[in-house]
Design goal:
This protein is an all-alpha fold. The protein has five helices and no strands. Helix 1 packs antiparallel against helix 2, helix 2 packs antiparallel against helix 3 and helix 3 packs antiparallel against helix 4.
Length: 148
Amino acid sequence: MSTEYTSHGRGARERWIPLIARLAFAPLLLTYAALKIRALSGGVTADMLQHFSLAQFVLYLTVLLELCGGVLLVLGLYTRIVAGVLAGFFVTLTLLMLPYALSGGDGAASYFDQMLKNTAIAGGLVLVALHGAGSLSLDAWRARRAPL
């Protein structure tokens, strides 16, 4: 039984599925980062962060994590670490939104929707962190080039 990757069957799934999973996060993370950068350039803070103390710091941190994390996930570089950090960030952000989502006030439904989205993203990122980048990644390339 060969462990060599083939163009069909299990080898192809093990090769392509991790790449597809990583690429699925890229548009989401990079688009959200671009929207936040646009908000920063206009001198306003993002809607969802306006109620939090230290909103400007959180906004810059969010942009950094989403932008750098999205690029690193596409490249498959430090994938497990990046996916774990991003998952932790989305869980933290979700917990910060909880009081506003449960308040029943203006915008509570929007916060609740954001919480559901963040939970789904965190779940997917946990799977990427657990399974790694796969063979079509810079992580795999670095591992192949590393001396034994």
